[in-house]
Amino acid sequence: LVARSIDRKSAVLRTLQVAVFPLLLPILSLLYTDALSLGLVLIALWMVLEKRSYVSALFLTLAVLVRQNNVLWAPVFLGIALEWKFGKRISFRPRKTLSRSLPFVIPVLVFLFFLLINHGLTVNYSALHPTGFFPGNIFFALALFTGIFLPFIIGNLGRITKFVRAHRSVLLLLFLFLLLFLSTFTVTHPFNQDPQYWRNWVLLAVAHEWLPLVIFALSMVLALLTMTVTRFSVPGAWLLYPSSLLYLGASWLIDARYALIPLVLFLLLREKRSWKEEVWQYVWFILVGMWVFA
Questions:
Q1: What value does the mean pLDDT take over residues 100-104?
Q2: 46 near 76, Cβ under 8 Å?
Q3: What is the pTM of this model?
Q4: pLDDT at 220 over 90
Q5: What does the pLDDT look like over 146-188, one tens digit per residue?
């Protein structure tokens, strides 16, 4: 339904891509709230695309009750509701703007009320889930992006090359980003220490061996460049990037499932590519999913 609201012609294929999304398949068989959280966020997105802001805010509020950090999607949906294009001022029409924006105050108020009565974000195991900003999941999500969207990245290589040639200063920014990564990336959470889990095996290898570190760093660079040159199909969707930074940075534990909602939202909101490229992306999702379950 979300895909159909964005583009009817590619809706079926985009829906199939979500159905076999590699990070979603393993979670469906586990007793986690991630699948429910994703479902509520997607319904909220569908409603805001259909210009039904109050219904969207209702489902986003339910998503906040499931996972409190879902409140960070409120700015994204607000930007979509107001059709806020990147680098441009919002067209302010008092009655229309207020009717579209006021509903998204509701999930924020519910979130603040939860903080007040709970005296913090975490319900259980507060020592293992402290409040703060931790960049580990941001780095991991960027590396996952490259592995999951590899056909999409390959299709963008020409655009990436042109962008870098036209904006040489981006190389300096990437260098500074890599310095930030090298100085802040740590794997210290107790649940990230067992190498029997594939995520921990990858993270510990990156933290202690130079070759995995180089591959990880190159993957992040490719992800950043791809996101830079990728256009969105919906005005206001560019707010997905800053909201995802805050969403991913909220957890000390580094886990692939935390990247599920940001990457699925990117999949749905990004521009449509050629039918051939989209089919290859679908096939790649299936192959990666088979590897995950192998």
A1: 81
A2: no
A3: 0.87
A4: yes
A5: 999 999 999 899 999 999 999 989 999 999 999 999 999 999 8
